[in-house]
Amino acid sequence: MKNNSQLLLCAALLFFVSCAPLRPLAPQSSEKQQQGSQKQQQSSEKQQNSANITGIAEWDNVLSPWLGTPYLYGGNTKSGVDCSGFVSNVYLEKEGMRIPRTTKEEFEIGKSVNRANLIIGDLVFFGKKGNEKKVNHVGIYVGNEKFIHASTSEGVTVTSLDNSYWKPLYLGAKRYL
């Protein structure tokens, strides 16, 4: 009987040892889960705040679905878009207005607007770091000193005109409406 108990005890120990993980779970797995959870929360917060980008339903209904769209050079869909593609698509969808497809052409047309007189829907233009005088980027002014644009690092996002990266690159604004 003693042999049976010892045999049973050994079998149970062998079972538990064989079912245990060979190594403890890496802390990175937990960190990755937390990061994923944080990204989901940020995305959810962005979507919740997206309904009030400008405070004007006609604009917000068009702009909100673009938020988070990844940047894609030459892209012009909600699967991937560049800055001028984003602007031209928004104007076509909201106003039925075709505007040029390139940032350079968009900058050449339209009525120049002083920054102090910007209104929602004006296009804001920026130069390129290292060549600040050459137009390289465009966004749509959404009020409160902010603009929405297709950022190479964040996709379609809302950014302050006073952002430390964008402020020194600001070239001017054009009004199409």
What's the number of extended β-strand segments? 8
Number of domains: 2
Shape, per Cα inertia axes: globular
The arrangement of helices and strands along the chain is HHHEEHHEEEEEE
* CATH architecture field of the largest domain: Alpha-Beta Complex
What would you say about this model in short?
The chain is α+β, with helices and mostly antiparallel strands.
Fold blueprint:
Blueprint: H1 2-19, H2 27-50, H3 57-63, E1 76-77, E2 80-81, H4 83-95, H5 103-108, E3 111-113, E4 123-128, E5 131-143, E6 146-151, E7 155-160, E8 170-175
Antiparallel strand pairs: 1-2, 3-8, 4-5, 4-8, 5-6, 6-7
Describe it.
With 177 residues, the chain is α+β, with helices and mostly antiparallel strands. The protein is 38% helix and 25% strand. The strands form two sheets. A six-stranded antiparallel sheet has the order 3-8-4-5-6-7. Strands 1-2 form a two-stranded antiparallel sheet. The longest helix is centred in the N-terminal third of the chain and has 24 residues. It is globular, with a radius of gyration of 26 Å. The relative contact order is 0.13.
